[in-house]
Design goal:
The two termini are about 35 Å apart. This protein folds into two domains: about 60 residues, Orthogonal Bundle (Arc Repressor Mutant, subunit A), CATH 1.10.10.10; about 170 residues, Chorismate lyase (3-Layer(aba) Sandwich). It is built from nine helices and ten strands. By secondary structure, the chain is an alpha+beta fold. InterPro entries: Bact_HTH_transcr_reg, Chorismate_lyase_/UTRA_dom_sf, Tscrpt_reg_HTH_GntR, UTRA, WH-like_DNA-bd_sf, WH_DNA-bd_sf.
């Protein structure tokens, strides 16, 4: 049995405003009519009109600003993520450049990430992933990634200290680790990445995540958990990321299993 449609006056007003946003009558960033005007237009109380606005705000279609009103949420470029972002050719090419002339890539990376590198006790999931005792010390490399000045996601990677000590992975300056990223560094250490396991889970953000990613009300996040393994199945990096859902899409191609 399908659920009964929401047909109350607040829902009807929200539906009309939603349609007006969808067909472009209200562009991203445009201000919606004030609650008092909506109440007069639809012949309802201000409370009912405010409920309609709240429905759209909860859906994430609009944002409200105290003392200013309701605005259509700004759209942001969507970044497509798929297996090709791990392509060996990409980080090997950068690795080769690192031994040659400066192509400006390092400068391009500066300012795209704000990060910290610390030695911390391993929580249970980190310990299990890296095969170390709980509370033993691990390297935690945490960063917030920006695109066009907007935070898009956070990522925290974990490593065994004895494997990455005195490498660029320990460098907390903005940008990728070294000139070729962590995969190139691990390869130089004899720990070449071969396989990637990823788990994606959609959920609502925590208060801290709303602040860090500057999320509008009602926007979920996608939590990514990643295991980087050598050809022998040895985990050399464990990572956890939180992505603003409206700023990403994931694309995967794979053969159908038997």
């Amino acid at each position: 049995m399908s659920p009964e449609p929401q047909t109350g006056p607040a829902n009807r007003i929200a539906a009309e405003l939603r349609a007006a946003i969808a067909d472009g009558r209200y562009q991203p960033g445009a201000q919606l009519p004030p609650v008092r005007d909506l109440a007069k237009q639809y012949g309802v109380s201000r409370n009912t009109a405010a409920k309609a606005i709240n429905i759209l705000r909860t859906e994430g279609a609009i944002v409200t600003r105290y003392g200013s009103g309701a605005y259509v949420r700004e759209s942001h470029p969507i970044r497509t993520l798929g297996p090709d972002r791990y392509a060996r050719s990409k980080w090997q090419e950068t690795r080769v450049r690192a031994h040659g002339e400066d192509d400006g890539r390092e400068k391009e990376q500066q300012g795209t990430q704000a990060q910290e590198v610390e030695i911390v006790p391993a929580e249970e999931d980190v310990a299990v992933a890296l095969g170390v005792p709980i509370a033993s010390l691990v390297v935690e490399r945490s960063r917030t990634v920006f695109r066009d000045g907007l935070p898009t996601h956070t990522m925290v990677s974990y490593y065994r200290p004895e494997e990455v000590r005195d490498t660029p992975i320990m460098d907390d300056r903005p940008g990728m680790a070294g000139r070729g990223g962590s995969f190139a560094i691990l390869t130089d250490l004899g720990l070449a990445p071969q396989d990637v396991d990823e788990k994606l889970k959609a959920r609502m953000p925590t208060t801290d995540e709303v602040d860090v990613l500057r999320l509008p009300p009602g926007e979920p996040v996608v939590e990514l958990t990643r295991w980087i393994k050598t050809a022998e199945g040895y985990v050399v990096e464990y990572a956890k990321g939180v992505h603003a859902a409206s700023r990403f899409e994931w694309l995967y191609s794979f053969p159908i299993p038997d």
